Amino acid sequence: MNAVIVAAEITRVGVYPDETAVELAARALTSALDRTGLARPEIDGLVWSLGRPSGEDYPTTVDALGLNLRFASQFWTHGRWTGAAVMTAAMAVSTGAADIVACLGGVKRVPDITGPDVPLDPTSPAFAWSIHQAAGMAFRRYLTLYRCDRDRVADVVIAQRQFAQNNERAYLRAPLTLDEYMIAPEVIDPFRLPDCYPFNARGGPMNDYGVCLLVARPEVAASLAGASVHILAAQGLQASREEIWFGRPGLGLLQQSSSSFEPTKRDMRVYADAGIVPADIDAFYTYDVFSSLVWMALERFGHCEPGAAHKWATIDRIGPGGQLPVNTNGGNLSEGHTAGWGHFVEMVRQLSHEAGPRQVPNAELVQWGSTFGDSVVLTNSPRRGNTR
Amino acid sequence: MMATTKGSGEEQFRAFMKVGELRFQQCASCKTRRWPPSGVCHKCLSTAYSWQPAEAQAIVVSYVKVNPPIGSEAKSLLEVHAEFGGGVRVTGRLVDPDPIPAPLVGRHATWTLKPGAESSAKFVGAAGDYPTIASLEFELESEEP
């Protein structure tokens, strides 16, 4: 792809009772403009990634922020669209539809969408039929198919918390030990509390944020201050009756087939397009609103064998200093639910070697990949970038 | 079997539930079962279908235990995902889940619909929830000695 990320800014992930979604987005946009030296009129493309109901819609945003665009697109607020939004921006600048695209969003989840906190009532359909249940059903199916120990997923949670301890943006930064994890409440078995994104009593995400990634054509990017991170390859969200949210194909839920899973050519195409293999990746980022999704994403993108993640994804391997650090921002589990945008900001930080204590030494190639099969590979190496 | 019909079927599905019946659509053309209710067959795109009664038994394929808040004396609930014919898997609540039989996955269960079931069916979740019927209850069949 012929596209470069020149800025990636996100607010602290927290609760902003007095600010709207657009105001949070404006904060991130202002930071991105400051980093690059760009003026607002130079932004001629928008991928508004966080539409209603949690965010705002693009016309309101464009009006409020005084943008003047020749390319505009919008997704509804959900983690499944994060990779697709970045890919859309890259395609826009690669084709000349725009010179500089802002992947922009703001989310105001507390308290207007999820409502005031109420005691968790297990008889309430509002909670019992929640996304937690859906993800739990998928995880139980996985545990049954591969006969693995649920408690091994503690390593995912603890490793990401170790990263979050050094991330000042993170919502949860307190250390988490295995003993603390093991006695944490089983909210919806098979999930303990730390296996889930920070949520309120009705199951909704706790936190608000604003985010802005600026994506430019390489010749435009060359004249700008700020980051220089090339979008090396990208593949879109996969969609079929085999795809389920909070799982992956072959788990045998709904009318999905129940089969042995192997990554397909579709899953692995991003590596071929980038001219690399999975072992070349220096750090991996995935949508992790539940810890189980990390195991399934690692398997879907060939970082370990199907059904082997419970043994492979140890703290030593995916935590600080590991062979394949995962979600070095702390992920949705610890940094807070950012639908994956915090992950992309972190990927740019890592490739700009600005990640401080979380820095992956000599990071050159990092990958986003969700359980839905979408993936984006970023690099800071011009010799790798823009090869297609 | 009822006459072939058209439309999404959701309203009819709820009407069946109201009288305690659980029925699934079957494509009039290719005989594929549809779940959740839909106006179009995902296999052959035919819009015609008939209604088939659900089998008396389903097989548990997954489950989650929903625990009450700390300090609450409420009981835990056990939601099970159970498979009917045609690969249709539906989520409902297991009656008397304490203690959870081990293994639970693979057990046969019969079903009933509590009064008011027609209003609890949920087919599309904005966040990707699974289709569920809150008033569908399963009871495990006794195991062979």
Q: Give the helix proportion of chain A (percent range).
A: 25-40%
| Pattern of helices and strands of chain A | EHEHEHEHHHHEEHEHEHHHHHEE
> How far is the first residue's CA from the last residue's CA of chain A?
6 Å
Q: Terminal Cα separation of chain B, in Å?
A: 36 Å
Largest sheet of chain B: 5 strands, mixed, barrel
Helix count from the secondary structure assignment of chain B: 1
| Helix-and-strand structural type of chain B | mainly beta
Distinctive features:
heterodimer, A: 388 residues, alpha/beta, 9-stranded mixed sheet, 15% strand, B: 145 residues, mainly beta, 3-stranded antiparallel sheet
Note down, in words, how this protein is organized.
The complex is a heterodimer of chains A (388) and B (145). Helices cover 31% and strands 15% of the residues of chain A. Chain A is an alpha/beta fold and 388 residues long. The longest helix of chain A has 16 residues, at 21-36. With 145 residues, chain B is mainly beta. Chain B has one helix at 10-18, and strands spanning 23-27, 33-34, 49-53, 57-66, 77-83, 89-94, 108-113, 121-122, 132-140. A five-stranded mixed barrel of chain B has the order 4-5-6-9-7. In chain B, strands 2-1-3 form a three-stranded antiparallel β-sheet, with helices on one face. In chain B, a hairpin with a 5-residue loop joins strand 1 and strand 2. The termini of chain B are far apart. In chain B, 32% of the residues are buried. Residues 124-129 of chain B have low confidence and may be disordered. Strand 5 of chain A pairs antiparallel with strand 4 (57-66) of chain B.
